[in-house]
Amino acid sequence: MKQRVFSGVQPTGKLHLGNYVGAIRQWAKHQDDHDNIFCVVDLHAVTIPEAVDPKLFRAKILEVAALYLACGIDPEKSTVFLQSHVAEHSQMAWLLNCLTPLGWLYRMTQFKSKAGNNEGVGTGLLDYPVLMAADILLYDTDRVPVGEDQKQHIEFARDLAQRINVMFPDAKLKIPAPMIPPAGARVMGLDDPTAKMSKSIAETKNGHAIGLLDTPSRIKKAIMSAQTDSGNEALFESAGPGVRNLLDLYEVLSNQDREVIEAEFHGQGYGKLKKALVEQVVGCLEPIQARYHELTDSPDYLDQILRHGAERARSIAGATHERLRKAMGFV
Ligand code: AQP
Q1: How far is the C-alpha of 112 from the C-alpha of 188, rounded, in Å?
Q2: Cα–Cα distance between 97 and 95 in angstroms, integer?
Q3: Which of 159, 201, 205, 209 could form a disulfide with 16 if both were Cys (CB 3.0 to 4.6 A apart)?
Q4: In which domain, by residue range, is 159 found?
Q5: Residue 233: what pLDDT?
Q6: Would the pLDDT of 167 be above 80?
Q7: How far, in Å, is the centroid of ligand 1 from the Cα of 202?
Q8: Domains in the chain: how many in total?
Q9: Is 100 among the domain residues?
Q10: pLDDT at 73 over 80
Q11: Is 196 a catalytic residue?
Q12: Does some domain include residue 173?
């Protein structure tokens, strides 16, 4: 029996290099080893409703789905669907909501950083980890491939599953584990290497992220103006955060050993490293972009993949939801 993996990305903006190296790239890489379920988590994307423009939202959802396939997710090997097409996600989230102590939610760092002191923030933002736990637990997931930023949310899902299994032993929820890549798990913003590269920041700040569909000239501009320091050190252990971010990205994309990279770029001035990174990024994104444009030329194909994916997802999610319902005594 292959282990089951589940993961997803929110259609909150343009997918960036962090989403790719931190998550989607490793989904694609390990497809043959696992039973894979990949979802566009569109319900999560409305937790900041001010950012939702209905027409644009629809386009972003389909863009993310097409990018999954363009990045190498093979629908013959992986189930790909939209979260809102499988009603059990919302239904399971309600049951889990009622079994989650409120204090657990107030402790989540993503909520604290996104909500700040804004009292008008939507309940959905606070509740985000519960919906994510529902996503994961519905599929009896063994492993969740994510970037470093999502680790706390996976721990939340584990704690919640353990709590429910004690309260209702017949629920038999599977305890999931995170699967975090050894390199590229936390790509930082090019304009500010102390902040994680993020879709929502990229919506308002040019030069923050590299979008998977960015043109070569835009990629070049963003990398060449990436924040570094005034030195010329290119050593992984002692580099400042901006240079370290560039070195990390170069390491992941070039597949070269650190010693080889340091020998090439240390003491050279950062222009050489930046130019070489531009080449790596453009080379990596070219085939993804070509496949993406092929896919968007045949929308019926994508539609068919998503319908088929939702059917398979429903058959698994429905059984788990029913198990919890019965364990809790629902008729
Ligand atoms: N900077 C990053 N480096 C490595 N991995 C990252 N991921 C996100 N940013 C980085 C991983 O991408 C997957 C999808 O993330 P998400 O859409 O569910 O939400 P997120 O983590 O909140 O991603 P963003 O880009 O920062 O979106 P917004 O701005 O909407 O919040 C996850 O596996 C995540 O770890």
Answers
A1: 19
A2: 5
A3: 209
A4: 4-181+299-328
A5: 86
A6: yes
A7: 12
A8: 2
A9: yes
A10: yes
A11: yes
A12: yes
